[in-house]
Specification:
alpha+beta, Jelly Rolls, Alpha-Beta Plaits, 4 domains, seven-stranded parallel β-sheet, six-stranded antiparallel β-sheet
Length: 732
């Protein structure tokens, strides 16, 4: 690799608005209105009868919640029955994805396997019993407009949102236990929480209203109850989920941590390379003064002590961000890239169950008051993510990272060797606006996922989780970090250390380059440079993150890498040219592209979680209208053909792909991009949307064309090599 060929910046100077034609078609309905009307009428009748039997105190202001399942042909938000709901004063307060066997199939949506199961949309519909009765009466008298009849055709089933759907992960023993409860609290319905607390108290539960955590549309709170009481509490119509409160996942080492004082290192004399970068670590504390030159330890409870295990974990995570892992033959520690605020959110005043709420409240209070650019979380609930619901940790933290101004790395958990489903990534590593990091077993080129590293997939959106893996240590190759006691080293392993290792790489990019390397840019560069030969995406995400910075900064003579940083206006088509040489190409062309953006979310709608989305069209020739070709093909990413047919991929916040083209098939290629929005799963007026910041990184490499880099630099005068700060040593 030629170290003179630096990564190019200012790719956004090449983009411009463009007018494009686009169109669509109607869905082929599996049922006629006449076929579906008697079925939905009967289900509404049964639903109303059951609703009338629910205790009044379990129905806040006589409101109930129905599960409305759409036929699998109508997953897209544009097919939701908005007019039907508005006409009868009903409101969609949540949604999720479900697998169902429909009563019938259409020409486009066919039976895909032996079970006949297809992915569909389950909508939670709230309203008074009277409103549902009015809908029933109009349907019975056939007094509906053609538009409403068309929406009835899309409904597969309507039924009560019952206890079996709400109660999850409850230990069957009859003792009292600490419980986590999620309640729908939409703006249109008042006093839901006090009414729930009153009803739960009558059932015999002890509700802690002092530790309520609320996000738009949902509220979470801890409760103490027996399983019998939980069954009664779950009848509250606006209750979304109830589960045993999981334990805290921290300090569950893969093997016993060891310390070696025969290997001695001196701490650097220098200050951090870039003191303007703001970094926060939330962990178990440090408990010593050795890092005072670069680290400010803040105790969330000033009078509480922390155990040695918690302090060891906090020291190792902090040392990883400061100096990285220590490798064989290393003589000295690197100068830290940035200063760190280490928040001791774990101490002896925190237990490992209900006080998960206390830990989250501590983190939330810090993020509310401070604007950190880089954050690491190597802790969270020990619980596999659930497709049905977003956990309190994910729901609360998402809002602090949705503007793209903070990059948060999150350890995915160390339960990867457990049986299937129990080995899935753990909250809050399912954050769509964060970087979920699993563990690889080696720093060498020949690596594998550590068997302890939790696996994906995540939800959709956020399907590719973990985002990637990094060295986390193994028995054969431990993760070695500087230990402040006696200047020695400690050997350990876990995703807890892979995560801050990736954060260090991101901070290094910002500290090393004389360019506006935002946290979103650092995230995009890291994902763009992941390596994955044949590893399963469910296990390693996009691949292993780069182990040193120069992998991301330099290009060979036959390739070019360009950063685009810009904003997209709502519903405006933007053409983004891909730099292409004017000289003859002597072999195949390899184009790799990574789009990243951040998005506000609707936590109550796992099915339609992100509010922002992109449609990206690749053209092999920008001057030929019909030269479109699939680029971000998600085959091999999504699990079913139906998901590929629907628009789920449009709402992913990360798109990453490499494509190879034969010689002569490309001529000034480009991406055409359009930005869409939604809220609560519904379409919204584009005037309500804010401009969407995005980052795109594109690599173009041509076989047997060593003049490519120089030709592109000469051809595109607005592109400029990104300069490196002279005092930074790039190799790690």
């Amino acid at each position: 690799m030629n170290n003179k060929n630096l990564l190019l910046g200012y790719g956004e100077t090449l983009s411009s608005p463009v007018e494009l034609k686009h169109g669509g078609g109607d869905k082929n309905c599996p049922y006629t209105y006449e076929e579906n009307r008697p079925i939905i009428l009967k289900e509404l009748y049964d639903f109303i009868n059951v609703s009338n039997k629910i205790l009044d105190k379990a129905k806040p202001n006589n409101n109930v919640v129905a599960k409305l399942l759409l036929h699998p042909a109508f997953l897209s938000k544009t097919y939701f029955p908005q007019a039907l709901l508005r006409s009868f004063s009903l409101n969609m307060i949540g949604s999720k994805s479900v697998n169902i066997v429909p009563r019938g199939y259409s020409k486009k949506i066919k039976k895909s396997n032996e079970t006949g199961e297809l992915s569909s949309a389950c909508l939670y519909i709230a309203g008074s019993v009277k409103s549902f009765q009015t809908l029933h009466d109009h349907l019975e008298s056939n007094d509906l407009t053609e538009k409403l009849k068309n929406e009835i055709k899309k409904i597969e089933k309507i039924e009560l949102f019952n206890n079996n759907d709400k109660i999850k992960h409850i230990d069957p023993s009859q003792i009292e236990r600490k419980i986590e409860v999620a309640i729908h609290t939409p703006d249109d319905y008042q006093n839901i929480l006090p009414l729930f607390a009153s009803y739960a108290g009558l059932c015999g539960a002890k509700v802690d209203m002092n530790r309520v955590l609320s996000v738009k549309g949902l509220s979470f709170l801890p409760m103490i109850a027996t399983p019998e009481v939980i069954n009664h509490v779950a009848e509250f119509t606006f209750l979304r989920t109830v589960r045993d409160l999981p334990s805290l996942r921290i300090n569950n080492p893969v093997f016993t941590r060891t310390t070696d004082t025969t290997k001695k290192f001196l701490l650097p004399d220098s200050s951090a390379l870039d003191k303007s970068i703001k970094v926060a670590i939330f962990d178990g504390g440090i408990g010593c003064n050795d890092y005072n030159k670069w680290v400010n330890e803040i105790k969330c409870n000033p009078i509480a002590n922390a155990s040695s295990d918690l302090l060891n974990h906090g020291q190792d995570v902090t040392s990883t961000v400061l100096f990285g892992p220590i490798v064989n033959g290393q003589k000295e520690l690197s100068v830290p890239y940035a200063n760190i605020d280490h928040y001791r959110v774990l101490d002896d005043s925190i237990s490992t169950d209900s006080d998960l709420f206390d830990v989250l409240i501590r983190i939330k209070s810090v993020l509310e008051k401070n604007d950190y650019q880089y954050v690491n979380l190597s802790l969270g609930p020990r619980l596999p993510v659930d497709d049905d619901d977003v956990h309190v940790w994910t729901s609360v933290l998402e809002q602090y990272f949705s503007d793209g101004k903070t990059l948060c790395t999150v350890a995915v958990g160390n339960d990867g060797s457990l049986p299937t489903s129990l080995n899935r990534i753990q909250p809050p590593s399912d954050l769509v606006n964060a970087l979920a990091v699993g563990a690889a077993d080696s720093l060498a080129d020949n690596w594998n996922r550590c068997d302890y590293s939790c696996v994906g997939p995540g939800r959709s959106p956020g399907y590719v989780k973990p985002d990637g893996v990094a060295f986390g240590g193994s028995v054969e190759e431990p993760f070695t970090v500087y230990n402040p006691y006696l200047g020695g080293v400690s050997q350990t392993a876990g995703t807890s250390f892979a995560s801050p290792f990736v954060l260090r790489q991101a901070i290094g990019l910002a500290a090393s380059l004389q360019h506006n390397i935002t946290p979103l840019t650092a995230k995009t560069l890291l994902i763009h440079h992941t390596s994955n030969s044949s590893h399963d995406k469910k296990e390693v995400g996009w691949g292993r993150f780069p182990t040193n910075l120069d992998e991301m900064l330099y290009c060979g003579d036959d390739e070019v890498k360009v950063i685009y940083q810009d904003e997209l206006a709502p519903s405006q088509h933007v053409r983004i040219p891909i730099p292409f040489p004017s000289i003859p190409i002597n072999g195949k062309v390899h184009i790799k592209a990574t789009f990243c953006f951040s998005s506000a979310v609707d936590a109550e709608h796992p099915l339609n979680y992100t509010r922002n989305g992109l449609v990206v069209v690749f053209r092999t020739d920008k001057d030929i209208q019909n030269s479109t070709k699939s680029f971000f093909n998600l085959k091999g990413v999504y699990s079913t053909e139906q998901e590929l047919r629907e628009d789920a991929h449009k709402w992913e916040t990360t798109l990453h792909k490499t494509q190879t083209f034969l010689k002569g098939t490309l001529n000034n290629p480009c991406f055409d991009v359009i930005y869409y929005g939604r809220e609560a799963g519904m379409s919204i007026d584009t005037k309500q949307l804010e401009p969407l910041p995005y980052v795109l990184v594109v690599s173009v490499k041509a076989d047997n064309t060593p003049e490519l880099y120089n030709n592109i630099v000469q051809r595109y005068q607005t592109l400029s090599p990104i300069k490196i700060k002279q005092q930074v040593r790039i190799n790690i």
